[in-house]
Amino acid sequence: MENALKQIWSRGEPVLNGWCSVGSPFTAEIMAAQGFDSITIDGQHGALDYSDALPMFQAMRGSGKTLLARVPWREPGVIMKYLDAGAMGIICPMINSAEEAAEFVSYLRYPPLGQRSFGPTRAAFAIDGYSTTAANDHILAFAMIETAAGVENLEAIAATPGLDGLYVGPADLTLGFTNGRLAPGFDREEPEMIELQQRIASVAKAAGIHATLHCGSSDYAARGIEWGFDMVTVQNDVRFLATAAGAVVDRFRTLTGSVGSDSNSGAY
User: CATH number of the domain at 4-235, please?
Assistant: First the structure.
């Protein structure tokens, strides 16, 4: 049992992570067929639940990509079920303290390192060489830094034993850190937000763990790598679909001078 992301990092290369928000095995299969190093199933804000996630893991098994999941919350039952389904890493939202980070990590590790219950229903045969020891060694734990409290306790969170990385969710981080003064969104250009993102990457590196940034564009993701992030996510399947479809429609309207039917230009 190995985690390919660790091999990429050992070569000094960044990880490019894909993101699935649509509860569809076919969409997941398409995403996994692209050049991403890993694919995350979004169980928090995605239009899906565990019954969708399981066949999505199955559809992506043959891709060789490292499969991750963002869980809805720091809840042990859900975290353990995603792991039992075959996730090789968990991204947990809204980690605000070292205590919460330690609790989160404990749900991913079998005793004596944690309190994970044994029952790898699918993981035991879907992941080659699966064992409790190997799972403890290779399954990744990412804590999302998204709130003012998380920023305040950043160093303590990063120092949590067994934590593998910090994951920056720019939308919630902007809302929380500025107390709603700035609107949420990716690819922040405000100096205070750039400085904060750089600080998070620096703190992670100093603690010997990884730093991940969710981005809205490849250009911004490349800047994130320059700032010290060693894993970046660019958009998600929903945005890819909306952007590509919108571009086709806009181009057609421009070439033909047609207006067409009224549409919802504010689609996500």
Answer: 3.20.20.60
What is the tens place of the pLDDT at every residue in 161-190? Answer: 999 999 999 999 999 999 999 999 999 999
Share of the chain above pLDDT 70, in %: 97
Cα separation values, 105 from 38, 70, 71, 141, Å? 20, 14, 13, 6
* pLDDT tens digit sequence for 30-66: 999 999 999 999 999 999 999 999 999 999 999 999 9
Q: How far is CA 69 from CA 32, 73, 80, 83, 146, in A?
A: 14, 11, 11, 9, 17
Read off the tokens for 221: 């993701």
Instruction: Give the C-alpha separation, 237 to 22, whole Å.
Output: 7
Per-residue pLDDT reduced to its tens digit, 135-152:
999 999 999 999 999 999
Residues taking part in catalysis = 45
- Which DSSP letter does residue 22 get? B
Q: Are the C-beta atoms of 253 and 37 separated by less than 8 Å?
A: no
Give the number of C-alpha atoms closer than 13 A to the C-alpha of residue 241, restricted to the C-beta side: 13
Query: Residue 20 phi/psi, 5° resolution?
Result: -110, 115
Report pLDDT for 268: 46
Residue 168: both structure tokens together: 């920056």
DSSP one-letter string for 179-244: TTSS---SS--SHHHHHHHHHHHHHHHHTT-EEEEEESSHHHHHHHHHHT-SEEEE--HHHHHHHH
> For 91-131, what is each residue's pLDDT tens digit?
999 999 999 999 999 999 999 999 999 999 999 999 999 99
Instruction: Map out the domains of the chain as residue ranges.
Output: 4-235
Which two three-digit tokens encode residue 253?
A: 């309207």
Contact 53, 43 (CB under 8 A): yes
> Which value, in Å, is the radius of gyration of the alpha carbons in the chain?
19
